[in-house]
């Protein structure tokens, strides 16, 4: 039996089995490559479609910057005192990339026995990539949209006064353009 295994040749395996093994090998090779999802809208996640952990980092950085900015501004308002701010996001930021449309097809079809016409349009585009002298490459972003803010929580020492709470609410509404029902203003607990 051991002698038979050593003398195994391609003729013994057969062309059909070799073809099946080759197809399986090609399938495994192709399926191991990551799949790039692309749409024709030209919209991808911030920074050109990076993964969710990177998006999350940019979103957290955006939240931190906005919270610090609002906190600093509100602390300068008379009667507000010490402030803590929490911002929640409804959606992440987006970047719209420039697309060069290289091929456009338009087709029309008519249904038999009726007057209806269907038209299909296909546009294929490729993202414009910019390169600098150092060889670094980046997509050409034509518009960036900031993350959409879902709600604000503002806790401040002066919120016990209706006048101060009203001014804080008005300031938050005008800065972020969100309705009053998405902003909560609470009085900060007295510190000993």
Determine the number of helices (DSSP H or I, runs of at least 4 residues). 6
Roughly how many Å apart are the termini? 88 Å
- Taken as a percent bin, the fraction of beta residues is 25-35%
* Tally of distinct domains: 2
The dominant shape is elongated
The protein's oligomeric status is single chain
Query: Helix share of residues?
Result: 25-40%
Strand order of the largest sheet: 1-3-8
Global mean pLDDT? 75
Question: In terms of per-residue confidence, which ranges show pLDDT below 50 for 5 or more consecutive residues?
Answer: 37-50
Counting DSSP E segments of at least 2 residues, the number of strands comes to 10
Which CATH architecture of the largest domain would you pick? 2-Layer Sandwich
The top level CATH class name of the largest domain:
Alpha Beta
Radius of gyration: 30 Å
Q: Write the CATH homologous superfamily of the largest domain.
A: ANL, C-terminal domain
Can you describe this structure?
The structure is a single chain. The protein has two domains: 46-96 and 143-187, 2-Layer Sandwich (GMP Synthetase, Chain A, domain 3); 97-139, no CATH class. The protein has six helices and ten strands; from the N terminus they run αααβααββββββββαβ. The chain has helices at 2-6, 10-13, 15-31, 46-49, 52-75, 162-176, and strands spanning 43-45, 83-91, 94-97, 99-110, 117-127, 129-131, 137-139, 141-145, 148-156, 183-187. The strands form four sheets. It has a three-stranded antiparallel beta sheet. The protein has a three-stranded mixed beta sheet with strand order 2-9-10, covered by helices on one side. Strands 4-5 form a two-stranded antiparallel ribbon. β4 and β5 form a beta hairpin. The longest helix is centred in the first third of the chain and has 24 residues, at 52-75. The protein starts with a helix and ends in a 5-residue tail after the last strand. The model is unreliable at 37-50 (pLDDT under 50).
């Amino acid at each position: 039996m051991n002698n038979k295994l050593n003398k195994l040749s391609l003729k013994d395996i057969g062309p059909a089995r070799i073809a099946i093994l080759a197809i399986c090998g090609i399938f495994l090779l192709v399926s191991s490559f990551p799949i790039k999802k692309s749409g024709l809208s030209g919209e991808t996640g911030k920074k050109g479609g990076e993964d969710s952990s990177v998006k999350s980092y940019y979103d957290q950085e955006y939240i931190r910057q906005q919270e610090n900015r609002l906190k600093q501004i509100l602390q300068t308002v008379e009667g507000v005192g010490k402030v803590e701010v929490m911002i929640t996001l409804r959606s992440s930021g987006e970047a719209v990339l420039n697309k060069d449309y290289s091929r456009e097809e338009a087709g029309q079809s008519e249904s038999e026995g009726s007057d209806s016409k269907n038209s299909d349009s296909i546009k294929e585009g490729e993202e414009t990539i910019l390169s600098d002298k150092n060889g670094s490459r980046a997509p050409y972003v034509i518009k960036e949209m900031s993350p959409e803010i879902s709600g604000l929580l503002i806790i401040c020492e002066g919120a016990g006064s209706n006048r101060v709470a009203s001014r804080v609410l008005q300031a938050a509404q005008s800065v972020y353009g969100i309705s009053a029902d998405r902003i909560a203003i609470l009085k900060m607990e007295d510190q000993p």
